[in-house]
Amino acid sequence: MNILIFGASGATGRHLVAQAIEQGFHVTAFVRNPGKLTLKHSRLRVVLGNVTNYGLVKKTVKGHDVVFSALGASSPFKYDECIAYGVQNIVRSMEESYVDRLISMSFIGVKESRPQGGFVIKYIAPVLLHTEIKLHQEIEYLIKRSALNWTIIRPSTLSNGPHSGVYRIGEYVSATTPVSLISRADVADLMIRQVKDSSYIRTAPAIMY
Length: 209
Ligand SMILES: NC(=O)c1ccc[n+]([C@@H]2O[C@H](COP(=O)([O-])OP(=O)(O)OC[C@H]3O[C@@H](n4cnc5c(N)ncnc54)[C@H](OP(=O)(O)O)[C@@H]3O)[C@@H](O)[C@H]2O)c1
Hints:
Helix 3 links the parallel strand 4 (66-69) and strand 5. 35% of the residues lie in helices and 21% in strands. The model has no long low-confidence stretch (mean pLDDT 97). An eight-stranded mixed beta sheet has the order 3-2-1-4-5-6-10-8, sandwiched between helices. By secondary structure, the protein is α/β, with parallel strands linked by helices. The protein has a single domain (2-208), classed as 3-Layer(aba) Sandwich (Rossmann fold), CATH 3.40.50. Bound molecules: NADP nicotinamide-adenine-dinucleotide phosphate. NADP nicotinamide-adenine-dinucleotide phosphate is lined by residues 7, 9-13, 32-33, 36, 50-52, 70-72, 74, 82-83, 86, 105, 107, 132, 155, 157-158, 184. Residues 7, 9-13, 32-33, 36, 50-52, 70-72, 74, 82-83, 86, 105, 107, 132, 155, 157-158, 184 line the site of NADP nicotinamide-adenine-dinucleotide phosphate.
């Protein structure tokens, strides 16, 4: 199984790469800054580039079975239009190359799932993180209107905690505390599980402890 990961040098992306390798997949990591991805493995290929480069994205997508996106802006307060443009490139390249499985990381703070996120996500995030929310709503729109077999994963507040494999997931799970956490390693765990699980195709489950 050939897996392609966009955002592979990021804090969650690096977990995705490591866990995918651990599970025996052949992994392509698409990165613009190779120094941030130190893992080396015979089943890991690194493609250097920017997701805004449609030609390169299309060439890279070809031949893969599953595509992951853990793309994100360098700051939650900065709107980076390159990312929405990049997701558009990914979706278009996949449709044109008949690669149809996309697993993408979003944020529970988007309008549809915000009430599930607890006090902070419900009342404070829309004020403080409106830029990040706007970006994820746009990305979700681009993905949902595609013909792909997509799964959008909506994590609550991210932490750098351990990989436990134990968390709550679903379209209706709700926070039981004002701030609900989930580790990046467990978000990666859930995303990788989607490779062999079709239950969440064309849905957007939330994930939290
Ligand atoms: N913070 C939270 O509590 C929270 C909660 C839920 C969801 N989220 C969302 O989760 C996502 C991932 O979070 P994270 O902390 O893992 O993010 P991160 O560490 O900032 O990683 C983002 C990745 O995207 C890459 N990237 C950005 N623009 C790119 C471009 N134009 N071309 C190629 N690659 C590009 C970055 O590359 P470089 O390494 O070169 O910068 C990096 O690898 C974000 O979208 C964030 O909004 C965050």
